[in-house]
Design a protein that fits this description.
alpha+beta, single chain, Aldehyde Oxidoreductase, domain 3, 5-stranded antiparallel β-sheet
Length: about 160
């Protein structure tokens, strides 16, 4: 999805009379990560796999946490600081399950869904971010993500 994330639409999609809890998590692009400033994030995905994988994770979360409903939206392309990059909505009979499911989903999305994150610096440099620690790799000015700059096999 290359348009802005609509958290209210997601929350409305999981609303149900059986749900006593509706949890909405919204991840936003922040201006500073580990002391390094950023002006935007850029997300790339293996789109034929990413969408179905997000849907699969929602189905698993519904079963695992006894949710009434679940919805996830992850933005692709450039996301300026302050804008939403991902939203997760979970509804359940009780809050504990809805909160647990939203957190579990975010962790799984980072590890399992083929979406990659790059930070754009104020000076124009771009750093691909790796999950699980380690320093980001600086992208050479002449190299774009499609020319080998994207970390292969690493998930956001």
């Amino acid at each position: 999805m290359r348009r802005p994330v609509d958290p209210q639409r997601l929350l409305a999609a999981v609303a149900d009379h059986e749900a006593g809890a509706n949890v909405l998590f919204v991840g936003t692009a922040r201006a500073v990560t580990n002391g390094r400033p950023a002006v935007a994030l850029e997300f790339e995905a293996h789109e034929p796999m990413a969408g179905p994988e997000l849907e699969r994770l929602c189905r698993v979360a519904v079963e695992k946490f006894g949710l009434v409903a679940c919805a996830v939206e992850h933005r692709l392309g450039r996301v300026p600081v302050g804008e939403a990059s991902v939203a997760i909505a979970a509804s359940a009979p009780h809050r504990r399950e809805a909160f647990a499911a939203a957190e579990w989903l975010m962790e799984r999305i980072k590890r399992e869904v083929p979406i990659w994150k790059c930070e754009e610096r104020p000076d124009g440099r771009r750093d691909w971010i790796h999950p699980g620690g380690g320093a980001p790799q600086q992208e050479a000015a002449a190299r774009g993500p499609r020319a080998g700059g994207r970390p292969r096999g690493r998930r956001r």
